[in-house]
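As the work plan foresaw, our protein records have gained a structure token line. A representative record is set out beneath this paragraph:
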Amino acid sequence: MGLLKEHKILQDLTDYPTQAYCNWKNLLEEQLENIEGKACQNFIEGLSRIRDLIEDIPHIATVSKFLETQTGWQLFPVEGLLASEDYFNLLSHRYFPVATFVRSGFDYTYSPVPDMWHDIFGHIPLLFDPCYSDFIKYLSSQYIARKDLQEFVGRIYWYTIEAGVCAERGNCRIYGASQLSSIEEINYALSSHPIVQPFDIDKVINSPVNIEKVQDQIFEIPALEYLKNIQHEFDHKFVKL
């Protein structure tokens, strides 16, 4: 893969200012408390596996090595936003892009631009769950293979992996990385404000995404394992034509 061969970004932990370390510490402390009774159990279990590695701004290579031994996934440090094609290409090869910068105090509780905190805390714990990680690889492979389906894939990815909720023992729980990594958004997602409706693939692919604000529309799946059903339905509707 060309992007991998050209990749030369290195992470130097001494380059981060003191404020970045303070922000990371504060985010971790507050969100560990905030996710109680809100995050899905699969996330909680995955988080416990990397907890010791993220006490401070983590060394991406160290987290990547541990993740690879446990799941086959690796982390891919990036300086900022990638083009969608590059992003999904990496995911389709089990490389998860991770930004090397940490959000500032200005966007502390909610950052519209994915930073290292969002990528590591929001996504990585659930990569230990095969349903979640296989679903990401599947969607990404479809994005790369079918340009005519890219908009549909992007919306499904958003309303599951980034802004998704599931039922757990009769309660609504969060598995979307955008909410899990945001002090503001996780509380909003479980409030009475957003419209929460059962996941319907036809509604999802016809629902435009606005990443610049917290989500007013959320689609709930009955369990994290339901991601397999979404994959099969997508296959039936769009791939096996």
